[in-house]
Design brief:
Blueprint (H helix, E strand, L loop, with lengths): L2 E2 L6 E6 L10 E5 L13 H4 L4 E5 L19 H14 L5 E6 L1 H12 L4 E7 L7 H7 L6 H17 L12 H11 L4 H12 L15 E6 L7 H10 L3 E6 L6 H4 L1 H16 L1
Parallel strand pairs: 3-4, 3-5, 5-6, 6-7, 7-8
Antiparallel strand pairs: 1-2, 2-4
């Protein structure tokens, strides 16, 4: 499995390319969010890899990226942007279409604002601009703080409490999807999640970065969401100069998993429009 070994933390990544070898094709980088992994993009890949090279990276300490760093040390948005730049450099990619889900989208906002030459288009999939108070309460699962919930319940019970809650997925969702989703979240390292949330996500905000994003931006969002409130969408509409917003018919945050085909086709059309 490919591991970016030139720095610490090391990063695991996947590359899928089914384009014609004689045709020049672009590259899209798919970046998952908090407590997830590159596997969550699996159903997107068939829609994309015949048209462009697809790179999927596991965030530091997530998925198959090793926990080879001090999880209690401060996490910074600049650090995660640096991870992305290091991966692009390793793969010899001057610029990519960047698609980030949830926290992966916050990283994309910072990347596009700080390194505009590396981002051809930016797609945000249910990406908050900041962590609102209501979502912080829900992810604390009845405890005073999320970190306490993670350490007291353990990963499996925390995942069941948050992502297995009756209202996380819409009524009628295949129970096998729900079980898989919870099971994948449960594989996460609790201390990685505690460190990332406690030292970065709890207070992180990309609001100040939005006016500096020059790349065309596609937003794929639920119709109403716990993490992505109307106030946050208003921030994007006011401050992002070139924004296309598409809503998927659900209030669930998990649109990347519930609507993989629809989302991937919207992304593919958006990339093609700006490549042409």
């Amino acid at each position: 499995m490919p591991i970016l070994n030139i720095r610490t933390p090391r990063l695991h990544y996947r590359v899928d390319d089914h384009t014609d070898p004689w045709r020049e094709a672009g590259t899209v980088l798919l970046q998952h969010g908090y407590a997830r992994s590159s596997k969550f993009w699996n159903a997107w890949v068939p829609h994309l890899s015949g048209h462009c090279t697809v790179v999927r990276a596991d965030l530091r300490g997530h998925g198959k990226s090793p926990v080879d760093f001090d999880t209690a040390a401060p996490h910074t948005l600049d650090g995660y942007v640096g991870d992305t730049i290091a991966l692009l450099d390793e793969l010899g990619l001057d610029a990519v279409h960047y698609c980030g889900e949830s926290f992966g989208g916050i990283i994309g906002m910072a990347l596009a604002a700080q390194h505009p030459q590396r981002v051809r288009t930016l797609t945000l999939v249910a990406s908050p601009v900041y962590q609102n108070e209501k979502s912080q309460d829900v992810y604390a699962a009845g405890f005073p703080a999320r970190e306490q919930a993670l350490r007291t319940l353990g990963m499996r019970k925390w995942a069941e409490a948050v992502y297995g809650a009756p209202d996380f997925f819409p009524e009628g969702t295949d129970p096998r999807l729900r079980d898989w989703y919870v099971g994948e979240i449960a594989k996460s390292d609790a201390e990685v999640l505690c460190g990332l949330y406690g030292t970065l996500l709890r207070h992180a905000s990309a609001e100040a970065l939005l006016p500096d994003i020059a790349a065309p931006v596609l937003g794929l969002y639920p119709t109403s969401g716990l993490l992505t409130s109307s106030e946050q969408e208003d921030l994007l509409a006011r401050h992002v100069r070139d924004l296309t917003m598409i809503h998927l018919p659900t209030s669930s945050h998990a649109i990347m998993t519930l609507f993989p085909g629809e989302c991937a086709e919207h992304l593919r059309a958006f990339m093609a429009r700006h490549d042409s």
